[in-house]
User: Fold this.
Amino acid sequence: MLEILYQDEYIIAINKPSGLLVHKSFYARDAKVFAIQELRNQIGGQHVYPIHRLDRKTSGVLLFALDSAVLKIMNDRFATREVEKKYLAILRGWSPEELTIDYDLTNDDGIIQNAITYFHRLQSTEIELEFNNQPTSRYCLVEAIPETGRMHQLRKHFKHIFHPILGSRPHGCNKQNKLWLENFDLRGMMLHAHQLIFNHPITNEQLILNAKINEEFSRVGTILNLDLNKYE
Assistant:
């Protein structure tokens, strides 16, 4: 059963599990289960329209419209950046305390698109894990707010500043991912859409939807001695 965070006659939001595709994708033809299908079945067969996307490995708040008119309203609000998306990510190394990454990305059609991400560091940690001939490894927890919504934007932006998201493939650090797979059996990606802030498409009331982190994110936080209590 999907965790429903909010539901009324116009919209519905879930806490999407990591590993679940939103819909069928050319890039993941092995998948048999999709969020659209599962949610529709769970609410009695009513059609649902995804308003935005989350990567397969990204967990967190995912919003759907329950009719096409509401879908158009919310698509317009996403396009005009009236919706604020906040993510939690665990990065390799100690990132700057805060930074706006303004770095263009190229999509699958070869088109260059402007992409902007603001983030600030929440916590820093260092553990006894040998890497690159060093006895310890450093990591940090950040909150990221993408101003644009390009494919794999956060993964690509954090790799660009040399602080890749732990567990990200292919836009990560292969050596770190292998280290964590061998030592901690980490197979997921440490990226979670923890909050979505927007005005309701019909009532215009402000909604703040929060999604708890999953067990894998919490387990990694424990290994790294991060305080994740407020997100659990």
